[in-house]
Specification:
By secondary structure, this protein is an alpha/beta fold. Helices cover about 35% and strands about 20% of the residues. It has helices at about 55, 75-85, 100, 120-130, 145-155, 205, 210-225, 240-250, 270-285, 290-295, 315-330, 330-335, 345-360, 395-410; strands at about 1-5, 10-15, 30-35, 45-50, 85-90, 110-115, 135-140, 170-175, 185, 230-235, 265-270, 295-300, 305-310, 365-370, 370-380, 385.
């Protein structure tokens, strides 16, 4: 390992790195930033390192599986930094990567702004209002319909505990110009949802073209505002829309890439939470799937390409495929009942997952990995986004995860 002192920070690289001055002794304490090149566009911006092998292949799917990571002679300083959670990988190929060295860790309660207060947005808002008092300072809401925004400000203003009137976050209407005056921006806007009874089978992809146009507009607003918070994609299709937000925010007025917008880790898709919850629903009702409740995992997009594993240690391909199919088609069953399937997504993928995110707890969400936003178990830490590192992912399951990533690359 090669160590450098750069702008008052400790850097480490598995190979000699030019432009950082002479080598220095390994630091005994404090944060360490590992130089892990990954490309200016499709590489991750930064992430928490949990295995020395991630210093070599931290931008790929192998970062999820310890058994697929290369052996690296890391040295005592790096091993200690990993064990103590103070090693952050940074991608020096990205424009402005140096700003990460001095970026302050989020502290205190966060301001959350929500775009669009329809069925999903209003349900998500209700969940955040009732459950988010420990991590949310206030909630701003914005909608094309001024009446809808006024209605939900009025409704939420009357939700309170008796004699403890400050226990829940206050809700206020914000203008489009103030949408990015916040720490967390939640995109719930949507256009063109097929009506109940339509013959559209893949509702999520049906929505992509129209919703991507909306995302592009607000991604450019985020760029103009130099937004440094978290962009949360909740609208369908979650994973391609997350990538759209990232890509579009990094293009100049002529459409050229300059990397001056949102960093990849600033964007996360929130769609896997409800898929994980739907798998648990079926696992509670069929003993064959019961292992999912204690040993299972969910990977991939919110829709086609989803991978539900009945168990990591005792993986069963047939059971996992059956549970995956039940999970993927659960929204169609709700439509067959005559209702739009929005309550569970708004709460499990939306409110509950967002609150876990703000608390720095494990949750299901789509992070930038292998050039796409892919749903995995992850959490935000002072050292960056941490994706769960499993000891070994069975070969068939890893193949499905890779297929899911390839499918997403075909979409966008």
């Amino acid at each position: 390992m090669y160590y450098y002192s750069y702008r008052g920070h400790s850097l480490v690289s598995p190979v000699p790195a030019g432009g950082f001055g002479p080598e220095t002794p390994p630091p005994a304490a404090g944060p360490i930033f590992a130089l892990v090149p990954g490309g200016p566009v499709l590489g991750r911006g930064s992430f928490k390192v949990t295995h020395p092998g991630q210093l070599i292949v931290g931008h790929t799917l192998e970062a999820l599986d310890a058994s697929r990571l290369p052996a690296v002679e890391a040295g005592q300083a790096v091993r200690q930094a990993i064990a103590q959670g103070r090693l952050t990988a940074v991608n020096p190929d990205r424009a402005g990567w140096e700003t990460l060295l001095d970026a302050p860790a989020p502290a205190g309660k966060r301001r959350v702004n929500i775009l669009a207060i329809g069925d999903v947005g209003s349900t998500l808002l209700t969940g955040l209002k009732l459950l988010g008092g420990d991590v949310i300072s206030s909630i701003g809401i914005c909608d094309l319909s001024e009446q809808a925004a006024a209605r939900w400000e009025f409704e939420m203003g009357q939700v309170s505990l008796p004699w403890d009137y400050s226990s829940f976050p206050e809700v206020e209407v914000v203008s489009p110009q103030a949408l990015f005056d916040c720490d967390v921006f939640v995109f719930v806007a949507s256009k063109g949802i097929p009506p109940v009874g339509s013959q559209v089978r893949d509702v999520r992809m049906y929505q992509f073209e129209n919703n991507a146009k909306i995302v592009r507009h607000y991604a450019r607003l985020a760029r103009a505002a130099k937004f440094q918070g978290l962009w949360c994609a909740v609208s369908d299709p979650v994973d391609p829309l997350a990538k759209t937000a990232y890509l579009e925010s990094n293009r100049d007025e002529q459409g050229n890439w300059d990397g001056l917008g949102l960093r990849p880790e600033q964007v996360q898709g929130f769609g896997l939470g409800v898929m994980n919850a739907r798998a648990a629903y079926f696992a509670k009702r069929d003993r064959r799937f019961a292992s999912f409740l204690t040993e299972g995992r969910s990977f991939g997009p919110h829709g086609t390409g989803l991978c539900i594993a009945n168990s990591i240690e005792h993986y069963d391909e047939a059971l996992s495929q059956e549970l995956t199919q039940l999970t993927v088609t659960a929204n169609l069953k709700m439509r067959e009942m005559g209702f739009k399937p929005y309550v569970a997504p708004a709460l499990s993928s939306g409110a509950l997952s967002l609150l876990l995110t703000l608390r720095g707890e494990w949750h299901c969400g789509s992070v930038f990995l292998d050039g796409v936003y892919l749903g995995v178990k992850n959490r935000f830490t002072p050292a960056g986004v941490e994706t769960e590192l499993l000891p070994h992912i069975p070969e068939q399951l890893f193949g499905h995860i890779r297929e899911a990533a390839e499918h997403l690359k075909q979409v966008l």
